[in-house]
């Protein structure tokens, strides 16, 4: 049975969901969209149907879920799927930490791929309902439109585990700041980090921490994550080598320069991409210095912090398949709050939502015309700079609070 503080946390995380709630609009839009796609795919060439909605469909289905289920089969037969996953239809090694091999004890196998893929999608949509909170019909339509764009549908079609990580981090963000939820928030962040490594960026929510207990838990969890990384360092190196760093349907600092090299420009991809990141960070520093300190609400601000950190961190470190752009959805609640205002924040919110929608829409621009690819890269770099401005503003805010309040409250 939930204690009173836990029950209060649950009520805050799950606002009343009635007919006047705009989340119904988003849910209906997505349901209709996916129903039409599935019906057409069952009656026509499924590859062509998915291409119409901007997704390259691969068969057999749930491409990314399958690398895990076949890896479990290989592991049960005595093989090491991180080295050679011979049961995978595409012979892909399993590029996930070994902790995932623990699922072998549950008897999960390739035959369960479709079931797992559907459960992964359900976890994502459940998390989205929590992330949205109570909204208007117009805001529901905005969310519905965003959830039907190629970057999101790519993750659903692939059955990618990032959708599960998304769900874990939504709950972690919504628990953050609640006295009864502090342990759960950092615990879920640590779990997500163990499962997929990159969620370590989410610990940046510590910039919004104002309590001694929270700061102590943050330090412990970050230290545990660092120890975990050191413990599996050989596997991390193996995973990094086996994870494709292609420019197609990807975002990240190297994508643009890989494309320039493909056009036979003499560019050092690694050097120029690092220079571009440094230049973008400097632009963000200047922008955060000359603009008024951004105002963040409690709930939406925490979501924005986590989303900005994961996007900026993943962008700066490596290429990522475009389904990971879903973490930009963490910014939408705060941007919608800004868009409701009657001051300059309104235009920041509207413009940023348009930027994110464009990035999600052009997730397959690599396979389209050159102007669309250039627009995609412009939007991705703009999103990186914007996320860095958010993090720098949060850093300044945290620093001013720490300097003005040397004795943090419990």
Name a few traits of the molecule.
single chain, 410 residues, mainly alpha, 1% strand, disordered N terminus
Characterise the protein shown here.
- The protein is an all-alpha fold.
- It has one domain.
- 64% of the residues lie in helices and 1% in strands.
- It contains 17 helices and two strands.
- It has helices at residues 4-13, 23-43, 46-52, 63-76, 113-132, 137-147, 150-158, 162-175, 182-196, 212-231, 233-242, 255-262, 269-290, 298-317, 332-339, 345-361, 370-404, and strands at 250-251, 320-321.
- The chain has a two-stranded antiparallel sheet with strand order 1-2.
- Helix 2 (23-43) runs parallel beside helix 6 (137-147) and helix 14 (298-317) crosses helix 17.
- The longest helix has 35 residues, at 370-404.
- The radius of gyration is 21 Å and the shape is globular.
- The two termini are 26 Å apart.
- The model is unreliable at 1-7 (pLDDT under 50).
% residues in beta strands: under 5%
Largest sheet: 2 strands, antiparallel
The stretches of 5 or more residues where confidence is low (pLDDT under 50) are 1-7
Given the C-alpha coordinates, what overall shape results? globular
Count of domains: 1
* Strand element count: 2
For the CA atoms, what is the radius of gyration?
21 Å
Number of helices: 17
Q: Give the helix proportion (percent range).
A: 55-70%
Mean pLDDT: 88
**SSE arrangement, N to C:** HHHHHHHHHHHEHHHEHHH
| N-to-C span | 26 Å
- Largest sheet: spatial strand order: 1-2
Which structural class is indicated by helix and strand composition?
Answer: mainly alpha
């Amino acid at each position: 049975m939930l204690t009173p503080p836990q029950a209060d946390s649950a009520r805050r995380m799950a606002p009343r969901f009635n007919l006047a709630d705009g989340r119904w609009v988003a849910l209906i839009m997505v349901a209709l969209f996916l129903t039409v796609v599935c019906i057409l795919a069952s009656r026509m060439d499924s590859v062509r149907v998915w291409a119409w909605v901007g997704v390259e469909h691969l068969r057999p289905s749930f491409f990314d879920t399958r690398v895990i289920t076949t890896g479990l089969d290989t592991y049960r037969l005595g093989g090491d799927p991180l080295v050679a996953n011979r049961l995978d239809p595409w012979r892909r090694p399993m590029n996930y930490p070994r902790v995932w091999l623990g699922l072998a004890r549950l008897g999960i196998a390739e035959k369960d791929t479709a079931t797992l893929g559907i459960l992964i999608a359900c976890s994502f949509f459940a998390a989205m309902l929590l992330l949205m909170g109570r909204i208007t019909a117009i805001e529901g339509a905005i969310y519905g439109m965003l959830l039907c764009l190629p970057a999101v549908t790519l993750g659903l079609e692939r059955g990618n585990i990032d959708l599960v990580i998304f769900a874990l981090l939504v709950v972690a963000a919504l628990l953050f700041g609640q006295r009864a939820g502090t342990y759960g928030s950092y615990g879920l962040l640590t779990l997500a980090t163990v499962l997929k490594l990159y969620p370590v960026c989410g610990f940046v929510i510590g910039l919004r921490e104002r309590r001694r207990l929270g700061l102590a838990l943050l330090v412990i969890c970050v230290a545990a994550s660092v120890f975990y990384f050191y413990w599996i360092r050989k596997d991390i190196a193996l995973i990094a080598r086996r994870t494709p760093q292609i420019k197609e349907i990807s975002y990240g600092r190297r994508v643009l320069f890989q494309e320039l090299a493909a056009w036979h420009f003499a560019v050092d991809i690694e050097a120029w991409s690092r220079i571009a990141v440094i230049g973008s960070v400097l632009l963000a520093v200047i922008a955060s210095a000359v603009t008024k300190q951004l105002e963040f609400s409690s709930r939406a601000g925490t979501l924005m912090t986590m989303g900005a950190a994961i996007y900026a961190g993943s962008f700066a470190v490596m290429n990522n398949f475009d389904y990971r752009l879903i973490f930009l959805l963490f910014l939408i609640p705060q941007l919608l709050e800004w868009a409701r205002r009657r001051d300059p924040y309104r235009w920041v919110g509207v413009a940023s939502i348009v930027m994110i929608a464009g990035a999600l829409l052009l997730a397959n621009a690599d396979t389209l015309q050159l102007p669309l690819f250039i627009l995609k890269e412009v939007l991705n770099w703009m999103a990186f700079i914007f996320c860095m401005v958010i993090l720098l503003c949060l850093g300044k805010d945290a620093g001013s609070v720490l300097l003005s309040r040397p004795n943090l409250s419990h």
